[in-house]
Design a protein that fits this description.
The protein is built from 15 helices and eight strands. The chain has 327 residues and is an alpha/beta fold. It has a single domain, classed as Rossmann fold. An eight-stranded mixed beta sheet has the order 1-2-4-3-5-6-7-8, with helices on both faces. Strand 3, helix 2 and strand 4 form a beta-alpha-beta unit. Helix 2 packs across helix 15, helix 3 crosses helix 4 and helix 8 crosses helix 11. The longest helix has 15 residues. The radius of gyration is 19 Å and the shape is globular.
């Protein structure tokens, strides 16, 4: 039996927003559901520890494979992965579950999406939990142009904009790719360091190709857990997930005129001390933009916080839920 089968509830499927979404549900169908939204390159499986803990605490919890990932649909058009579609999938999931509102918890790219939900669909959101990913003000310029200026042309998000290139590089050896990404904080911090020669920061193409895959000391996952990710991405490739990044400019253009604050909505922000990509410093401005905000830091955690420090994540979220959304 695979880790996906042994560590996750049975998969369910919902027709939402023109696609089929696979999702995993646990806990009693009562109270406000918590929707767990994964990042890149991840799956609903990234939330396996939270599904178990929330179920044990009597909380209704749902983790979807989002558009482009895992067992969910992977549309062809790049524009089918813009913020309108990604948030629409989640409100469609609420319609399928028969609920008006949910608490949305997002990590990495999932965090970007859940912070947009109260701006785009305020009537469907009961609360927001950001894991590593802060609520950020709208950029004054096209974010891809800004990243190119600040980090260089080989920075991974800029590199991802080139059609087909990153897709092929990451898919060439899926196991190596997943082992490169799913490493402990020290290894990822080293990858994020400013290159001595003044090249691009976060130049994952070059770093991945240079990385010695015999390095097993920095691995975060058990072999069984790693296999669940590897099997999935071998089947799907990475294009669906990369297409989220290819909408940075489109999302920026279309977000003009959206609210710039979140008020009258309980929000929780959990940062990770050693996340090299989404640093705690990026969240420092949040109290000025969110009226009802609680913030915590998890010490010693790198980027993959819900998998690295599941007990701490679960405790912080469940404590906040008990205070803000008592059963």
């Amino acid at each position: 039996m695979s880790a996906l089968e042994s560590q996750m509830p049975p998969v369910q499927r919902a027709p939402v927003n023109g696609i089929e979404m696979a999702y995993y549900e646990a806990g009693p169908r009562e109270g406000v559901p918590i929707i767990l939204c994964h990042g890149f390159p991840e799956l609903a499986f990234s939330w396996r520890h939270q599904l178990k803990a929330f179920e044990a605490a009597g909380r209704w919890v749902v983790a979807p494979d989002q558009r482009g990932y895992g067992l969910s649909s992977r549309p062809e058009a790049v524009t089918d992965y813009d913020m309108e579609h990604l948030t629409g999938d989640l409100t469609g999931l609420l319609d399928h579950l028969g609920v008006e509102k949910a608490i949305f918890c997002g990590h990495d790219w999932g965090g970007i999406v859940v912070w947009q939900l109260p701006l785009m669909h305020p009537g469907r959101v009961a609360g927001v939990i950001g894991l590593n990913t802060p609520f950020m003000p709208r950029s004054p310029l096209d974010p891809i142009a800004l990243m190119r200026m600040r980090f260089g042309p080989d920075m991974y998000i800029v590199w991802f904009q080139t059609p087909g290139d990153a897709d092929a590089v990451l898919s060439a050896d899926v196991e190596k790719t997943m082992r490169f990404f799913m490493r402990k904080p020290a290894a990822l911090q080293a990858a994020a360091a400013q290159p001595a020669a003044g090249g691009s920061t976060f130049a994952f193409k070059e770093l991945l190709q240079r990385w010695d895959a015999s390095d097993t000391g920095s691995q975060l996952l058990t072999p069984e857990e790693l296999a669940a990710f590897v099997e999935s991405f071998r089947r799907t490739g990475f294009t669906g997930g990369i297409n989220w990044y290819r909408n940075f400019t489109r999302n920026w253009e279309r977000s003009e005129g959206l609210p710039v604050r979140i008020d009258r909505l309980p929000c929780l922000m959990i940062t990770a001390e050693k996340d090299a990509v989404l640093t705690p410093a990026m969240a420092e401005g949040m109290p000025g933009m969110i009226g009802d905000l609680e913030m915590h830091m998890i010490h010693g955690s790198g980027h993959w916080t819900q998998q690295e420090k599941p007990e701490e994540v679960n405790q912080l979220i469940l404590d906040w839920l008990d205070r803000r959304f008592p059963k």
